[in-house]
Amino acid sequence: MQTIRWYYLLQVLGSRPQTVLKLKHELEQLRIYVGVKTIQRDLNCLESIFMGIYSERSERQVYWYLDNSLPENIAQLKLKSQWKSKVTSAGRVSSNESNYKKVA
Fold this sequence. Notes:
By secondary structure, this protein is α+β, with helices and mostly antiparallel strands. The protein has four helices and two strands; from the N terminus they run αααββα.
């Protein structure tokens, strides 16, 4: 379920900065019902793994967005350098990374 949620989260994220509440509403339109904390955890995880996913704090809100230069096909997202060495040919993260079992 997490992989599917990440896929749709990346689809609704877009290049225009959005709050977690806005993203939650967008996911609900796709019939994906999750809490705000789950979305925050997912976004933090995605930001740590892939290049081009950003957060920006303004006053009391955190806004999330994708870089304009990212490919339209999310399958072409690039891993951050610290993750490249940890992914095996099977698409699994090495066993010392217990928080992220599968990235591909």
